[in-house]
């Protein structure tokens, strides 16, 4: 299942370069949907959009919302991936990455870059939230009570708070 973005989308729209291995990015794409998008849209609405996106059956309004979602997912996936592109945890502990003609930067530089990426993630998230707030009437599932059962959208109460299965 594609979680709104592909490896190439992230590499084209963020500061992640083309030589980063897809397997190093892949886990962060689905995690960014669950961590950053699902709390905004709610569990059921997120799953509905993902299903329609993968089936190619999004409405025009849903397509416009997904365009906002893609940038949010891309920047948050990059934000979460950056430390693990610089450092690896192996059976020998935490190790820095070194290439033939490059040197791994320290934690301060990694955090500086992450903060820059986070800035763009937040800008895109704010735009998405504003657009969704102006257009929420177009998405009945967003406000539907079944969307509040597992993980409610922004500001809505949830009847089930156990998310340990995530």
Identify the notable features of this structure and list them briefly.
disordered C terminus; 166 residues; 6 helices; 5% strand; 2 strands; mainly alpha
In a nutshell, what does this entry contain?
The protein has 6 helices and 2 strands, in the order H-H-H-H-E-E-H-H. The chain is mainly alpha-helical and 166 residues long.
What would you note in describing this structure?
The protein is mainly alpha-helical and 166 residues long. The chain has one domain. 60% of the residues lie in helices and 5% in strands. It has 6 helices and 2 strands, in the order ααααββαα. The protein has helices spanning 7-13, 22-41, 43-55, 60-86, 107-135, 140-143, and strands at residues 87-90, 93-96. The chain has a two-stranded antiparallel ribbon. β1 (87-90) and β2 form a beta hairpin. α2 packs across α3, α2 (22-41) crosses α4 and α4 (60-86) runs antiparallel to α5 (107-135). The chain is elongated, with a radius of gyration of 17 Å. It starts with 6 loop residues before the first helix and ends in a 23-residue tail after the last helix. Mean pLDDT is 83; it is low at 158-166.
- Kindly name the structural category: mainly alpha
What's the domain count? 1
Percent of residues in beta strands?
under 5%
**How many β strands by DSSP?**
2
**What is the string of SSEs from the N terminus onward?**
HHHHEEHH
Low-confidence region ranges: 158-166
Number of helices: 6
């Amino acid at each position: 299942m594609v979680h709104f973005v592909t490896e190439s989308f992230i590499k084209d729209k963020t500061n992640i370069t083309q030589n980063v291995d897809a397997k190093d990015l892949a886990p962060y794409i689905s995690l960014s949907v669950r961590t950053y998008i699902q709390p905004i849209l709610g569990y059921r609405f997120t799953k509905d959009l993902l299903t329609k996106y993968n089936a190619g059956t999004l409405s025009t309004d849903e397509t416009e919302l997904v365009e906002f979602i893609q940038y949010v997912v891309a920047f948050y996936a990059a934000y979460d991936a950056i430390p693990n592109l610089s450092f690896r945890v192996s059976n020998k502990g935490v190790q820095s990455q070194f290439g033939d003609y490059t040197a791994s930067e320290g934690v301060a530089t990694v955090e500086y870059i992450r903060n820059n990426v986070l800035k763009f993630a937040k800008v895109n998230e704010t735009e998405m939230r504003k657009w969704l707030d102006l257009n929420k009437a177009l998405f009945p599932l967003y406000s539907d009570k079944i969307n509040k059962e597992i993980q409610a959208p922004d500001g809505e109460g949830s009847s089930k708070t156990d998310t340990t299965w995530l």
